[in-house]
Every structure is written in C-alpha cells, then in structure tokens.
C-alpha cells in the first residue's frame, strides 16, 4: 500500500503521524511511505532520518495526499485539507467527529474511508489508541493547572503542594478513567489534596485501593459536583464517552460559587468539553476567564510535549496501521472487530452510531458494508 504522512496544520501542533522507526516497519512489510518535507521536525525527527528509514520525501502536503492510498495523521483534517481528501482514500487519525459536524459532512461528501483512533477497541474493550494521549494529557493537566494557579496567569497565587504552615491546594478530578488516574498520580505526587469523582462504584473502589488515604473518592452526581468545584482550587475535566459528545457536568451557574482565581483544565475539550463555558484554545493563548475562574482548554494538549507524545502515540497506532496496509480496511476490519469500531465514515456512509445520534444523521452498521 502507498502510505502517506503530512505535516500537521493545526495551530501549535508539533506531533507527527509516523516516526522513522514506523517507516522502517512499513517498508519492511513491503509498503511505500511518502512523507511531506519537514513533517517530523517538530517532534525531533529530520528528513534525513526518514530517508534513512526508507521514506520518500515529497515537497508539499498536496503531493503526499495525491500519491497516497492511506494518510496517517495525528489530528483531524482541518477545513483547508478537506479538498485534498478523495474518494476511497483511507484517513487514519484522531477525528473526534461528535464535536465537529463540518468535518463529518466533509468526510461523507468526499466518500473517504475514515478510521478514528479514539473509537478503536482493544480485545478487553479498552481504547488502546486513546490511552497514550490520555496518559499524557492527564499528567500534563496537573502541570498546566499548577502553572495557571500562579498570579501572572490569573490564578489565586497558590502553590499546589503548599509549604509547612500553609494549606495545600484542593484538586478535584471529574472522571476516574485513564486521564483521571494519571492526573491523580501527578496531583498526589505533588502533595495536593485530591478528590476524584466517578459514577462507577467499582472504579472508585479501585482508585481507593490504589491511593488509599492519599485521595478522597466521591460518587459523581450533580449535587456532589457542584459542592466539589466550589471548594476546589483546581478542577480537571477528565470525562469521556467514546465517540460521543462529552456531557456538560460543570454548569455555568456553578462558576459563581467557585473561588476567584481557581482553575478549570478541561481535558475533554476535543469532544466538546465537560464545562458549559468551555471553548477550544491554543498553546500560545491557552486560557480565558469566566466569572473569575481561569479556564485552560487547549484542544491538543499532548502537542505541547510532541516528542514524548509522538512516540507514545505511534507505539500504539503502528499495529493497526500495518494491519490496514496489509489487508485493506475491509480485510483488517473483518479480522479485527475492534478495528471495525474505528471506522467512522465509509464511502459516504456514517458508520459511527454515537456520531449519527449526536447529529441526527443516518447510521449504517459498517459490518454490512464490508462483505
């Protein structure tokens, strides 16, 4: 298969879809890899590294899109890339369609075969391609949140860990999944008072077993969330419903009861965010203030630590990418039902149930199209 990788065009996105080691694997399996010149520089990989691995360097993105049967990316195609997509082309990347109707319609109109990293399921029902970026984002959320608590960032001027004689910050984490548990590790490690909320009692019991007296677990209800954010210095939105828009757990009116200079880091912003006041921001201007509460809502948080993120992500995506290149999207999906769940659009048909429900569009079971 002819596999292509282009430079990400999203603002301040430095990750890349393939590393030189990934290229070696594709080439070793008999595939041709095209790479846009300079695509890996932001993650620490030069064109010479890719050439030595066996890639063919092309001068611009259009050349790569035109030459490739499958495009491997990191972030969803932006509007300027819609015209580069073509019928039957495989697009393998994060899509987050439930928060992006224009992209959904573009993929359907162009009759692409779009595979979303975030909805592929592993053998145990987990989300193996979302996990590495959730781990990065979870840990980074505490790092960024701690910074936002500083005065010059609009925060209350509070050190997360406190010092002897001065209280520690209260960190409230909404969601006990991969993002939540990684945020929890960082917050506990820095010595904060940590409260974590989830609707799964089994998950809360698991977290309690791991962290013991270092954290307080709370069942997530509207009332408990309102009380928790009111006493919080830092709130981490770590909620995920695979493939669907994130529920708005933090209501606008809750902000009036929060501390002036407290901080919300909404990691769920890619899926619309879990706070009613969330809007996507970028690394160069990551925060805004509503009712005295600082909001950090960068939609590609792991892009700020691109070297770590690229390697972590491609460690997970390579396996499925090679399977698609070897068997085609149809053969790969039939052999791996979890991969079939990643097929969000197929030749003009919407094949992700959650996205269809979100936008009121017709859904087609992908298995019925891949006979």
Descriptive report:
The structure is a single chain. This protein has twelve helices and 15 strands. It is α/β, with parallel strands linked by helices and 371 residues long. The chain has two domains: 2-120 and 306-368, Rossmann fold (3-Layer(aba) Sandwich), CATH 3.40.50; 137-299, Rossmann fold, CATH 3.40.50. The strands form two sheets. An eight-stranded mixed beta sheet has the order 3-2-1-4-5-6-14-15, with helices on both faces. Strands 9-8-7-10-11-13-12 form a seven-stranded mixed beta sheet, sandwiched between helices. Helix 2 links the parallel strand 2 and strand 3. The longest helix has 30 residues, at 306-335. It is globular and about 65 Å long. The mean pLDDT is 96.
């Amino acid at each position: 298969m002819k596999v292509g990788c282009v430079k990400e065009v999203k603002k301040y996105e430095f990750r890349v879809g393939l590393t030189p080691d990934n290229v070696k694997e594709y080439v070793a399996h008999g595939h041709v890899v095209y790479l846009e010149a300079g695509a890996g520089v932001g993650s620490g990989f030069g064109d010479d590294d890719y050439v030595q691995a066996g890639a063919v360097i092309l001068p611009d993105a259009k050349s790569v899109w035109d030459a490739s049967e499958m495009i491997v990316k990191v972030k969803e195609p932006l509007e300027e890339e819609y015209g580069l997509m073509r019928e039957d082309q495989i697009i393998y990347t994060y899509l987050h369609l439930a928060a992006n109707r224009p992209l959904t319609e573009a993929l359907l109109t162009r009759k692409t075969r779009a595979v979303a990293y975030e909805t592929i399921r592993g053998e145990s029902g987990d989300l193996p391609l979302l996990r590495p970026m959730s781990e990065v984002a979870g840990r980074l959320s505490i790092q960024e949140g701690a910074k936002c608590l500083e005065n010059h960032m609009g925060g209350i001027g509070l050190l997360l860990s406190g010092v002897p004689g001065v209280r520690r910050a209260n960190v409230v984490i909404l969601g006990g999944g991969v993002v939540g548990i990684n945020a929890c590790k960082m917050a506990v490690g820095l010595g904060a008072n940590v409260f974590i909320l989830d609707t799964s009692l089994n998950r809360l019991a698991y977290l309690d077993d791991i962290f013991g007296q270092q954290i307080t677990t709370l069942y997530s209800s509207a009332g408990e969330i309102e009380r928790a954010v009111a006493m919080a210095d830092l709130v981490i939105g770590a909620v995920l419903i695979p493939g669907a828009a994130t529920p708005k757990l933090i209501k606008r009116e809750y902000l009036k009861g929060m501390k002036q200079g407290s901080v919300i880091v909404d990691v769920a912003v890619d899926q619309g965010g879990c706070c009613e006041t969330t809007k996507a921001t970028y690394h160069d201007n990551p925060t805004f203030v509503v009712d005295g509460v600082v909001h950090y809502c960068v939609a590609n948080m792991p892009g700020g630590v691109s070297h770590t993120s690229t390697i972590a992500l491609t460690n997970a995506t390579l396996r499925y990418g090679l399977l698609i290149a070897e068997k085609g999207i149809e053969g790969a999906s039939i052999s791996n039902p979890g991969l079939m769940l990643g097929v969000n659009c197929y030749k003009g048909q919407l094949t992700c149930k959650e996205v269809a429900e979100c936008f009121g569009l017709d859904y087609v079971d992908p298995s019925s199209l891949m006979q």
